[in-house]
Amino acid sequence: MKHKLAPLFCMIIGLLIGSAPLRAHHGGSEYDNQHQITRKGTVSKWFWANPHCYVYLDVKDAGGKTTNWGLELSDPALMKKFGWSSNTLHEGDEVTITFSPSKKGTPVGHVQKVVLADGKVLSGVVPHGEQSEE
Question: What are the tens digits of pLDDT across the range 40-88?
């Protein structure tokens, strides 16, 4: 009887171990989606890549201290649906970004919208029901 249950046991353990990275990535949001903050700053880096695009924003406070914010967006396929491209942002661009901040208080967040220097507004969130094609 013990030998008959061994394959089932191994399969269950394998599924649990294999699903751990998915849970870590999608299991619980590290962002405070109930609150949004807006910061104006200078793009220091722009990554257009899977599984998520990122923009790094240098923001100066009233005292002149610069904080670099790491801000996450969706994947490139979905971002294209929002009107984004790999050339939307460049280092040195001045932008205003509204985002959901980290629950831990670290300078990271999930982008809700971006206002470019020319006033163009781009969404950073997935409309309800939308999913990536990947």
Answer: 999 999 999 999 999 999 999 999 999 999 999 999 999 999 899 999 9
Calculate what percentage of the chain has a pLDDT beyond 90.
66
Question: Which domains does the chain show, CATH number per domain?
Answer: 37-123 (2.40.50.140)
Q: How far apart are CA 16 and CA 29, in angstroms?
A: 20
Record the tokens describing residue 92, joined without a space.
């040195």
SS3 127: coil
Q: Of all residues in the chain, what percent are helix, strand and coil, respectively (each to 5)?
A: 25, 35, 45
d(CA 16, CA 25): 15
Residue given tokens 């870590």 in the structure block: 24
Q: 3-class SS at 106? A: coil
What pLDDT, on the 0 to 100 scale, is given for residue 124? 80
Structure tokens at 97: 């970004």
What predicted TM-score, i.e. pTM, was given to this entire model? 0.74
Query: Distance between CA 67 and CA 97 in Å, rounded?
Result: 14
